[in-house]
């Protein structure tokens, strides 16, 4: 089973009937597609900062209802930033210069805070932001506090340290009542942050 399908299987089980999923770092929309195939009842909001990738995600997901594709990245402040493209794997492009591939292309992308995005529900957040997970969460603190969603993160090498050292968002999740479960899928490490009393 491909990693996207493994992740989608976990997300689909966490979502309540008619629930809402945020696919943050949606890339080409493969995870959202896999979720919709087994859970056509759910609403999905996909965020992808690279316009070309967002366009591909929108085309892939156009056969489904209840999907909104946003060509914008999520961070702790609104504005524009350089994203560092990865030549070998599009999913490894990153906003963090420290982890950029040497000599890779850069593109300007638009950023916003999750807290500035109008949501009426949020049951599950999937974050695959290549070392930017902490900034995504910092810009979505009010959203997390309001909805207390399950938060599923693909944890890149070193990104856990970045959370502690730069923004402390993992520690904050524990402070507000989250528990952590570890997954290992297709050789990758993933984290599920579960609010106490859920699941």
CATH architecture: 3-Layer(aba) Sandwich
Helix content: 25-40%
The SS-based structural class is alpha/beta
Q: Would you tell me the overall average pLDDT?
A: 85
Q: Compute the CA-based radius of gyration.
A: 16 Å
Q: Which of globular, elongated, flat, extended, rod-shaped describes the shape?
A: globular
Which strands sit side by side, in order, in the main sheet?
3-2-1-7-8-10-9
What are the segments in which pLDDT stays under 50 over at least 5 consecutive residues? none
CATH topology: Rossmann fold
> At the fourth CATH level, what is the homologous superfamily?
Vaccinia Virus protein VP39
How is this structure best described in words?
The protein has 199 residues and is α/β, with parallel strands linked by helices. The chain has one domain: Rossmann fold (3-Layer(aba) Sandwich), CATH 3.40.50. It contains 7 helices and 10 strands. It has helices at 3-14, 30-38, 51-61, 133-138, 141-147, 159-167, 169-175, and strands at residues 20-24, 43-47, 67-70, 73-74, 79-84, 106-112, 124-127, 150-154, 178-185, 188-195. The strands form 2 sheets. A 7-stranded mixed beta sheet has the order 3-2-1-7-8-10-9. Strands 4-6-5 form a 3-stranded mixed beta sheet, with no helix packed on it. Strand 1 (20-24), helix 2 and strand 2 (43-47) form a beta-alpha-beta unit. Helix 1 (3-14) packs across helix 2. The longest helix has 12 residues, at 3-14. It is globular, with a radius of gyration of 16 Å. The model has no long low-confidence stretch (mean pLDDT 85).
């Amino acid at each position: 089973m491909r990693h996207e399908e493994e992740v989608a299987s976990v997300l689909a089980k966490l979502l309540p009937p008619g629930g809402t999923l945020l696919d943050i770092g949606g890339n080409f929309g493969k995870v959202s597609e896999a979720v919709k195939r087994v859970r056509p009842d759910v609403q999905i909001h996909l965020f992808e900062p690279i316009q070309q990738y967002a366009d591909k995600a929108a085309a892939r997901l156009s056969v489904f209802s209840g999907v909104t594709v946003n060509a914008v990245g999520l961070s702790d402040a609104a504005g524009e930033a350089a994203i560092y493209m990865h030549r070998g794997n599009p999913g490894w492009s990153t906003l963090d210069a420290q982890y950029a591939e040497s000599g890779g292309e850069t593109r300007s992308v638009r950023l916003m805070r999750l807290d500035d995005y109008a949501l009426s529900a949020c049951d599950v957040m999937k974050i695959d932001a290549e070392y930017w997970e902490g900034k995504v969460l910092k810009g979505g603190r009010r959203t997390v506090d309001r909805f207390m969603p399950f938060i599923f993160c693909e944890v890149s090498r070193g990104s856990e340290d970045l959370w502690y050292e730069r923004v402390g968002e993992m520690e904050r999740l524990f402070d507000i009542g989250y528990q952590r479960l570890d997954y290992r899928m297709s050789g990758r490490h993933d984290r599920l942050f579960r609010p106490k009393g859920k699941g």
